[in-house]
């Protein structure tokens, strides 16, 4: 199976051009079949490092590796024909220096064929973002609640409640914008702050737990599909209840196997009549 031709899919520049025109639609995707299902409806798909928690059951995203991101990035690329694809840079692959970030980002782009990378961080990452953009790598920034910093930032709590914290997030977004990011994810911030940032940066802002005034929205697909019974943060809306659907299907299957109702004659191969 080959990757569809590049020119048919949206680019980071197309995503930026939607700012002020039409809200950007984005979801996470980690596999080929899911990418195929989401592709017709989304402007960009994010191969998020949330896959560490969603697919691999990790407690945080800190343990996610380059190899995991590249393997899932390749899988998603095989499933898209319209959406732009952005891949998260995992923790430890870019924070050390701008040169390390370039090496990691270039590897992700070359080995997957994706359209750009995402990295978390504010003012402290601005020089790195500019370094990548100047060298041909489109960057999606990520400010506010930054899951890779969960060990130093006091956990998964919403941000920007104090004026000091709000000011820092504002400065972070401005720095990443000035560094040339085509878009910036704003995660888990108080609503007026996300609204304010969206109106003051030239990059497209992509909200998650942020504001309807952002230039677009993103959710983790598995969250919005209702695949987790025990996890529903305030910012997630369920557009389906797949956990129930899957449990019921598994229960029905188990019942039919135990009563020998499955497989039926239509599911078995009978010997061909002898000629
Ligand atoms: O890793 C991820 O899926 C993300 C989104 C939630 C924005 O960063």
TrEMBL record:
GO terms for molecular function: 3-methyl-2-oxobutanoate hydroxymethyltransferase activity; magnesium ion binding; methyltransferase activity. One of its GO terms (biological process) is pantothenate biosynthetic process. 3-methyl-2-oxobutanoate binds at residues 49-50, 88, 118. One of its GO terms (cellular component) is cytoplasm. It is an enzyme of class 2 (transferase). Belongs to the PanB family. This is 3-methyl-2-oxobutanoate hydroxymethyltransferase. The gene is panB.
